[in-house]
Amino acid sequence: MDYLLTEQQTMIRDLARKIAQEKIKPVAAHYDETEEFAWPIMKILADSDLFGVYLPEQYGGLGGGIMDMCLVTEELSRACGGIALGYAGTGLGTLPILLHGSDDQKKKYLPDIAAGKRLAAFCITEAGAGSDAGSIKTSARKEGGKYILNGTKQWITNAGEAEIYTVIALTDKSKGIRGASAFVVEKGTKGMEFGKKEKKLGIRASATREVIFTDCEIPAENLLAREGMGFIVAMKTLDTSRPGVAAQAVGIAQGALDCALEYARGRVQFGQPISSFQAIQHMLADMGTQVEAARALAYATARMVDSGAKSVSKESAMAKLFASDVAMKVAVDAVQILGGYGYMRDYPAEKYMRDAKITQIYEGTNQIQRNVIAANMLKEALKK
Amino acid sequence: MNIIVCIKQVPNTTDVRIDPVTNTLIRDGVESVINPFDAYAIEEAVRIKERCGGKVTALTMGPPQAETALREAISLGCDEAVLVSDRKFAGSDTWATSYTLAAAIRKIGDFDVVLCGKQASDGDTAQVGPGISAHLDIPQVTYIKKILQISAQGARVERMTEEGYDEVETPLPCLFTVVKEINTPRMPSLKGMMRAKSAKPVKWTAADLEADPAALGLEGSPTRVLKIFTPVPRKGGEMLSGSAADVSKELAELLKDMVV
To answer: ipTM of the predicted structure?
Structure first.
């Protein structure tokens, strides 16, 4: 389908695709197996200017938007959903600064992020605060010109590898979620440590760790927006980033479909390629249609975000929900088309299936997305 | 440090087809790319610039569409580009080509290093690089696989040989041809691609060069290609099977018969 990309977006997509196919695809299985963080690939993405596609030119970026970020995320995920997360996770960690940072804060952090010199990470989840993000316990106590952070963030993407962390913590426990605030914490700050690296089902090339704050002092100027705005910063960030998860899911789904299609054309049974059997053809047709529908929804949502629309909660949730469910289904079907070979690690189909699963879980489970969608639908109905 | 990197646009195929009548390459319908060996030369040129400062000028002789290759060179980090293009250059052999490129390099003027790929993937002659150095009367070191040190005073490089490598010292300016072991070419950058889009390569015709018209193109080419052919593929080897004792005995007999 022709999505009428701009000339610059076409350039971005083509370059991301070239890097994904030539540099990431050949090493995807290696990083999946070893669970190493793919720094050599991050370096290539940095040198190619891809980290800056969605950042304003005045801060060293290329002046594009979430649509541009989605194009990159999709192409990288088509080769490896885990390696792509080093990129996409940086986007998530950067959005609070981009959306709510002051000009000084943007000047301080965005140029290095745009150049790919420093990765970023977003820290909200805690052991007792997953879907119920409002029940976070991490605190930030103001003392003079400093905030002192205490608490433990869990399952933080890029933790340990990233250098810039945007952290949601309570500045006023008595106000509950209205007492949350957002901060920037730089790696190396005294009192900030990382927990052990998690062992995961999929996206194994992505680093996931705890981020532990013990009397961690940061300058007061690291506060994003105002005290009490933390939850709004977080929700706005997630509304903006969810098309990116949708793009990651579309990329994984497309990668799985590519793999299944190629296999079906080459695999001979009963004296003919299995792609000549209607049973396989109908599976491929459904997979292709679902991937395209997911892509169309993801792009439409990304463009809506870039248009400056006031609220994109419902649409972002829809894109993330639909694309991630498609990714899971298409990846499972890809394994089925490859049959026994699909179950073996010699082929990438099973990896796409393992990688797809997380897209239904993180940045809000798909059950939470449905809550968001329904709540928005009901709210809209009331207004009529 | 000013570096000139000579590049060539070649058909993107390893299975080059030859016109049986004219014995020249059939280029129709084949996508053109930068000669793969030249990509290493571009990368090395950009690395020298990053280390020592200065600028990199990409130079090519070819038809107007060779501008595409120059734009790609800019997206990979070259600063400027020169296209030498004229019908008068048509049919140049390696002598006339290197003569023309040398004239263009003289016109560019201030340079410390000329870099070339070791050979082009279509013609495979490996003669144009050395030819340029001869016409410019500057030293040449071919097949280099590593630049150990480079400064205005000179360079120390490793030159690949069949058994190992030579370490060579040379004053500058000097021409180097590079082998693929020298580096891993980088991916283009978006900012480079945007620069390439708006870049305007300098275009020179025969009239712009200080060159003897009789030394250009087919007329200026002392060599003629009489025949190009695909070598007959080697026959597959013979497999011996059986126990180790039987096979070794049979092999010994065969070797004896072959008088190895």
So the answer is: 0.85
